[in-house]
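fold-stage: in
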Amino acid sequence: MTITVISHITLDGVVQAPGRPDEDLRDDFAQGGWSVPYGDEAMMRAWGEGMAKATQGGGLLLGRRTYLDFADVWPKRVGNPFTEVLTETPKYVASTTLVEPLPWENSILLNDSMHQVPDHKLEKNLVILGSDDLIQSLGHAGLIDECLLTIHPLVLGEGRRLFRSGFPLSQLTLTATKPTTTGVIAATYRFTSTGCLA
Protein backbone atom coordinates (compact mmCIF):
# COMPACT_ATOMS: atom_id res chain seq x y z
CA MET A 1 0.00 0.00 0.00
CA THR A 2 1.15 3.56 -0.61
CA ILE A 3 1.12 7.06 0.84
CA THR A 4 0.59 9.63 -1.91
CA VAL A 5 0.91 13.40 -1.59
CA ILE A 6 -1.48 15.28 -3.90
CA SER A 7 -0.82 18.99 -4.15
CA HIS A 8 -1.07 22.10 -6.28
CA ILE A 9 2.40 23.64 -6.50
CA THR A 10 4.00 26.68 -8.13
CA LEU A 11 7.24 26.64 -10.13
CA ASP A 12 9.05 27.93 -7.04
CA GLY A 13 7.64 25.14 -4.89
CA VAL A 14 4.91 27.01 -3.00
CA VAL A 15 1.92 24.96 -1.82
CA GLN A 16 0.42 27.39 0.70
CA ALA A 17 -3.24 28.38 0.33
CA PRO A 18 -3.94 27.43 -3.29
CA GLY A 19 -7.72 27.49 -2.97
CA ARG A 20 -8.88 30.60 -1.07
CA PRO A 21 -7.50 34.01 -0.09
CA ASP A 22 -8.02 33.24 3.62
CA GLU A 23 -7.08 29.56 3.49
CA ASP A 24 -3.71 29.85 5.22
CA LEU A 25 -2.46 33.25 6.37
CA ARG A 26 0.62 32.03 8.23
CA ASP A 27 3.69 34.28 7.84
CA ASP A 28 1.39 37.03 6.47
CA PHE A 29 0.91 35.14 3.22
CA ALA A 30 -1.18 37.35 0.94
CA GLN A 31 -1.32 35.29 -2.28
CA GLY A 32 -4.02 32.78 -1.28
CA GLY A 33 -6.25 31.40 -4.02
CA TRP A 34 -3.50 31.34 -6.64
CA SER A 35 -4.51 27.99 -8.21
CA VAL A 36 -8.13 28.90 -8.97
CA PRO A 37 -7.58 30.61 -12.37
CA TYR A 38 -5.74 27.53 -13.65
CA GLY A 39 -8.49 24.97 -13.04
CA ASP A 40 -9.83 22.98 -15.98
CA GLU A 41 -11.32 19.59 -16.75
CA ALA A 42 -7.94 17.94 -17.29
CA MET A 43 -6.73 19.05 -13.85
CA MET A 44 -9.93 17.87 -12.19
CA ARG A 45 -9.59 14.51 -13.92
CA ALA A 46 -5.99 14.12 -12.74
CA TRP A 47 -6.98 14.94 -9.16
CA GLY A 48 -9.95 12.59 -9.39
CA GLU A 49 -7.75 9.73 -10.50
CA GLY A 50 -5.29 10.43 -7.69
CA MET A 51 -8.03 10.79 -5.10
CA ALA A 52 -9.47 7.41 -6.11
CA LYS A 53 -6.72 5.83 -4.02
CA ALA A 54 -8.32 7.39 -0.95
CA THR A 55 -11.98 7.14 -1.86
CA GLN A 56 -12.01 3.57 -3.18
CA GLY A 57 -11.11 1.56 -0.11
CA GLY A 58 -8.30 3.82 1.08
CA GLY A 59 -8.30 6.92 3.24
CA LEU A 60 -7.14 10.50 3.65
CA LEU A 61 -4.23 11.34 5.92
CA LEU A 62 -4.42 14.93 7.18
CA GLY A 63 -2.61 17.19 9.59
CA ARG A 64 -4.55 19.11 12.22
CA ARG A 65 -4.68 22.46 10.41
CA THR A 66 -5.81 20.97 7.08
CA TYR A 67 -8.35 18.71 8.77
CA LEU A 68 -9.99 21.54 10.73
CA ASP A 69 -10.15 23.70 7.60
CA PHE A 70 -11.71 20.88 5.56
CA ALA A 71 -14.15 20.02 8.36
CA ASP A 72 -15.29 23.64 8.48
CA VAL A 73 -15.62 24.13 4.71
CA TRP A 74 -16.60 20.92 2.94
CA PRO A 75 -19.70 19.79 4.87
CA LYS A 76 -21.27 23.19 4.07
CA ARG A 77 -20.83 22.84 0.29
CA VAL A 78 -24.27 21.59 -0.68
CA GLY A 79 -24.61 20.09 -4.15
CA ASN A 80 -20.88 19.57 -4.61
CA PRO A 81 -20.12 15.92 -5.48
CA PHE A 82 -16.87 16.04 -3.50
CA THR A 83 -18.72 16.81 -0.25
CA GLU A 84 -20.33 13.38 0.04
CA VAL A 85 -17.19 11.59 -1.11
CA LEU A 86 -14.98 13.38 1.40
CA THR A 87 -17.48 12.85 4.21
CA GLU A 88 -17.71 9.11 3.54
CA THR A 89 -13.96 8.58 3.09
CA PRO A 90 -12.03 7.59 6.23
CA LYS A 91 -9.97 10.53 7.44
CA TYR A 92 -6.90 9.81 9.56
CA VAL A 93 -5.94 12.95 11.46
CA ALA A 94 -2.41 13.35 12.81
CA SER A 95 -2.55 15.58 15.88
CA THR A 96 -1.26 15.66 19.43
CA THR A 97 -3.69 18.41 20.47
CA LEU A 98 -7.10 17.34 19.09
CA VAL A 99 -9.30 15.01 21.13
CA GLU A 100 -12.07 12.64 20.13
CA PRO A 101 -14.79 12.80 19.05
CA LEU A 102 -13.60 14.68 15.98
CA PRO A 103 -16.15 17.02 14.34
CA TRP A 104 -16.47 15.32 10.93
CA GLU A 105 -17.91 11.89 10.22
CA ASN A 106 -15.51 8.99 9.60
CA SER A 107 -12.57 10.77 11.24
CA ILE A 108 -9.97 8.79 13.19
CA LEU A 109 -7.45 10.51 15.47
CA LEU A 110 -3.78 9.50 15.25
CA ASN A 111 -2.09 11.06 18.28
CA ASP A 112 1.19 9.19 17.67
CA SER A 113 1.34 9.43 13.90
CA MET A 114 4.93 8.26 13.41
CA HIS A 115 4.01 4.93 14.98
CA GLN A 116 0.38 4.69 13.85
CA VAL A 117 0.71 5.72 10.19
CA PRO A 118 2.86 2.72 9.20
CA ASP A 119 0.22 0.37 10.64
CA HIS A 120 -2.56 1.99 8.59
CA LYS A 121 -0.31 2.05 5.52
CA LEU A 122 -0.11 -1.73 5.68
CA GLU A 123 -3.90 -1.93 5.35
CA LYS A 124 -4.83 0.71 2.75
CA ASN A 125 -3.65 3.42 0.39
CA LEU A 126 -3.50 6.83 2.04
CA VAL A 127 -3.64 10.22 0.33
CA ILE A 128 -2.30 13.42 1.90
CA LEU A 129 -3.86 16.77 0.99
CA GLY A 130 -2.37 20.01 2.32
CA SER A 131 -0.70 19.15 5.64
CA ASP A 132 2.76 20.52 4.81
CA ASP A 133 4.09 20.02 8.36
CA LEU A 134 2.94 16.39 8.34
CA ILE A 135 4.64 15.87 4.97
CA GLN A 136 7.95 17.05 6.44
CA SER A 137 7.67 14.56 9.33
CA LEU A 138 6.65 11.65 7.11
CA GLY A 139 9.41 12.50 4.63
CA HIS A 140 12.04 12.29 7.36
CA ALA A 141 10.62 8.89 8.32
CA GLY A 142 10.75 7.67 4.70
CA LEU A 143 7.00 7.02 4.66
CA ILE A 144 5.99 8.91 1.49
CA ASP A 145 5.82 6.75 -1.63
CA GLU A 146 4.72 9.12 -4.37
CA CYS A 147 3.52 12.62 -5.24
CA LEU A 148 0.91 13.81 -7.71
CA LEU A 149 1.76 17.45 -8.30
CA THR A 150 -0.21 19.87 -10.45
CA ILE A 151 2.62 22.21 -11.34
CA HIS A 152 1.38 25.73 -12.11
CA PRO A 153 3.16 28.14 -14.47
CA LEU A 154 3.45 30.66 -11.67
CA VAL A 155 6.20 32.05 -9.43
CA LEU A 156 5.00 33.60 -6.16
CA GLY A 157 8.32 34.41 -4.52
CA GLU A 158 6.89 33.76 -1.05
CA GLY A 159 4.96 31.13 0.85
CA ARG A 160 5.43 27.72 2.40
CA ARG A 161 7.05 25.18 0.13
CA LEU A 162 6.32 21.50 -0.28
CA PHE A 163 9.90 20.41 0.38
CA ARG A 164 11.37 22.80 2.90
CA SER A 165 14.93 23.25 4.10
CA GLY A 166 15.97 20.11 5.95
CA PHE A 167 13.82 17.69 3.94
CA PRO A 168 15.91 14.56 3.39
CA LEU A 169 17.80 14.12 0.15
CA SER A 170 15.48 12.13 -2.11
CA GLN A 171 15.52 10.71 -5.61
CA LEU A 172 12.23 10.42 -7.50
CA THR A 173 11.20 8.85 -10.78
CA LEU A 174 8.65 10.47 -13.07
CA THR A 175 5.92 7.91 -13.79
CA ALA A 176 3.23 9.97 -15.55
CA THR A 177 2.56 13.44 -16.97
CA LYS A 178 -0.63 15.05 -18.21
CA PRO A 179 -0.84 18.59 -19.60
CA THR A 180 -3.84 20.83 -19.04
CA THR A 181 -5.30 23.59 -21.18
CA THR A 182 -4.04 26.28 -18.77
CA GLY A 183 -0.34 25.39 -18.81
CA VAL A 184 -0.46 23.26 -15.67
CA ILE A 185 1.35 19.92 -15.78
CA ALA A 186 0.00 17.06 -13.66
CA ALA A 187 3.09 15.01 -12.84
CA THR A 188 3.33 11.84 -10.78
CA TYR A 189 6.66 11.05 -9.12
CA ARG A 190 7.66 7.90 -7.26
CA PHE A 191 10.20 8.12 -4.43
CA THR A 192 13.00 5.70 -5.28
CA SER A 193 15.45 6.52 -2.48
CA THR A 194 15.68 8.81 0.50
CA GLY A 195 18.77 9.90 2.40
CA CYS A 196 21.44 9.08 -0.18
CA LEU A 197 22.32 9.26 -3.84
CA ALA A 198 22.39 5.91 -5.63
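fold-stage: in (second)
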Amino acid sequence: MVKLHNERGYINITRDVFTYLTGDAATNCFGVKGMTVRSVTDGLVHLLKPESMGKGVHITYNDDDTISIELHIAVDQGVNIPVICESITDRVRYQVTKGTGVCVARVDIFVDSILLG
Protein backbone atom coordinates (compact mmCIF):
# COMPACT_ATOMS: atom_id res chain seq x y z
CA MET A 1 0.00 0.00 0.00
CA VAL A 2 1.23 3.50 -0.83
CA LYS A 3 0.53 6.21 1.71
CA LEU A 4 0.37 9.78 0.40
CA HIS A 5 0.23 12.83 2.63
CA ASN A 6 -1.28 16.21 1.80
CA GLU A 7 -2.46 19.21 3.82
CA ARG A 8 -5.81 17.51 4.60
CA GLY A 9 -4.49 14.14 5.74
CA TYR A 10 -3.37 10.78 4.42
CA ILE A 11 -4.46 8.78 1.39
CA ASN A 12 -3.83 5.03 1.26
CA ILE A 13 -3.74 3.51 -2.22
CA THR A 14 -3.95 -0.29 -2.37
CA ARG A 15 -2.38 -2.70 -4.84
CA ASP A 16 -5.82 -3.30 -6.41
CA VAL A 17 -6.01 0.31 -7.63
CA PHE A 18 -2.62 0.06 -9.36
CA THR A 19 -3.53 -3.35 -10.79
CA TYR A 20 -6.80 -2.09 -12.25
CA LEU A 21 -5.27 1.05 -13.78
CA THR A 22 -2.37 -0.93 -15.24
CA GLY A 23 -4.52 -3.72 -16.68
CA ASP A 24 -6.96 -1.23 -18.19
CA ALA A 25 -4.17 0.81 -19.79
CA ALA A 26 -2.39 -2.24 -21.20
CA THR A 27 -5.42 -4.06 -22.60
CA ASN A 28 -6.63 -0.93 -24.40
CA CYS A 29 -3.41 -0.66 -26.42
CA PHE A 30 -3.48 -1.68 -30.10
CA GLY A 31 -2.35 -5.26 -30.67
CA VAL A 32 -2.82 -6.49 -27.10
CA LYS A 33 -5.16 -9.49 -26.86
CA GLY A 34 -5.21 -9.51 -23.07
CA MET A 35 -3.40 -10.31 -19.86
CA THR A 36 -1.91 -13.75 -19.28
CA VAL A 37 -0.92 -15.98 -16.38
CA ARG A 38 1.22 -19.11 -16.34
CA SER A 39 -0.48 -22.08 -14.67
CA VAL A 40 1.43 -23.58 -11.75
CA THR A 41 0.05 -27.06 -12.39
CA ASP A 42 0.71 -27.51 -16.13
CA GLY A 43 3.08 -24.63 -16.92
CA LEU A 44 0.89 -23.40 -19.79
CA VAL A 45 0.08 -19.75 -20.43
CA HIS A 46 -3.62 -18.87 -20.16
CA LEU A 47 -5.38 -15.77 -21.48
CA LEU A 48 -7.30 -14.10 -18.67
CA LYS A 49 -10.88 -12.85 -18.83
CA PRO A 50 -11.22 -9.06 -18.41
CA GLU A 51 -12.52 -9.43 -14.85
CA SER A 52 -9.41 -11.46 -13.89
CA MET A 53 -6.76 -9.32 -15.58
CA GLY A 54 -5.20 -8.40 -12.25
CA LYS A 55 -3.54 -11.83 -12.12
CA GLY A 56 -1.30 -10.75 -15.01
CA VAL A 57 -0.07 -7.64 -13.17
CA HIS A 58 2.46 -7.59 -10.33
CA ILE A 59 3.12 -4.41 -8.36
CA THR A 60 6.27 -3.81 -6.32
CA TYR A 61 6.56 -0.92 -3.88
CA ASN A 62 9.96 0.80 -3.90
CA ASP A 63 11.65 2.57 -0.97
CA ASP A 64 11.55 5.94 -2.77
CA ASP A 65 7.71 6.00 -2.86
CA THR A 66 7.56 4.82 -6.47
CA ILE A 67 6.20 1.56 -7.82
CA SER A 68 7.50 -0.98 -10.32
CA ILE A 69 5.08 -2.86 -12.54
CA GLU A 70 5.39 -6.27 -14.18
CA LEU A 71 2.88 -7.16 -16.94
CA HIS A 72 2.23 -10.48 -18.64
CA ILE A 73 0.41 -10.10 -21.96
CA ALA A 74 -0.67 -11.85 -25.14
CA VAL A 75 -0.43 -9.98 -28.46
CA ASP A 76 -1.85 -10.34 -31.97
CA GLN A 77 0.19 -12.18 -34.55
CA GLY A 78 2.13 -9.91 -36.92
CA VAL A 79 2.42 -6.88 -34.66
CA ASN A 80 5.71 -5.14 -33.93
CA ILE A 81 6.37 -6.25 -30.35
CA PRO A 82 8.96 -3.55 -29.41
CA VAL A 83 6.62 -0.81 -30.63
CA ILE A 84 3.65 -2.25 -28.74
CA CYS A 85 5.71 -2.59 -25.56
CA GLU A 86 6.85 1.03 -25.80
CA SER A 87 3.24 2.14 -26.27
CA ILE A 88 2.10 0.07 -23.28
CA THR A 89 4.91 1.45 -21.10
CA ASP A 90 4.02 5.05 -21.96
CA ARG A 91 0.30 4.51 -21.45
CA VAL A 92 0.69 2.64 -18.15
CA ARG A 93 3.06 5.28 -16.73
CA TYR A 94 0.69 8.06 -17.76
CA GLN A 95 -2.53 6.49 -16.47
CA VAL A 96 -1.10 5.31 -13.15
CA THR A 97 0.61 8.62 -12.43
CA LYS A 98 -2.44 10.64 -13.53
CA GLY A 99 -4.85 8.49 -11.53
CA THR A 100 -2.86 8.18 -8.30
CA GLY A 101 -0.06 10.75 -8.28
CA VAL A 102 2.47 7.95 -7.70
CA CYS A 103 5.49 7.80 -10.01
CA VAL A 104 6.20 4.58 -11.88
CA ALA A 105 9.89 3.68 -11.72
CA ARG A 106 9.77 0.65 -14.06
CA VAL A 107 7.37 -1.15 -16.35
CA ASP A 108 8.57 -4.65 -17.28
CA ILE A 109 6.53 -6.36 -19.98
CA PHE A 110 6.57 -10.10 -20.66
CA VAL A 111 4.98 -11.18 -23.94
CA ASP A 112 3.90 -14.71 -23.01
CA SER A 113 1.87 -15.55 -26.10
CA ILE A 114 1.14 -14.54 -29.70
CA LEU A 115 -2.43 -15.28 -30.76
CA LEU A 116 -3.89 -15.67 -34.23
CA GLY A 117 -6.34 -13.12 -35.60
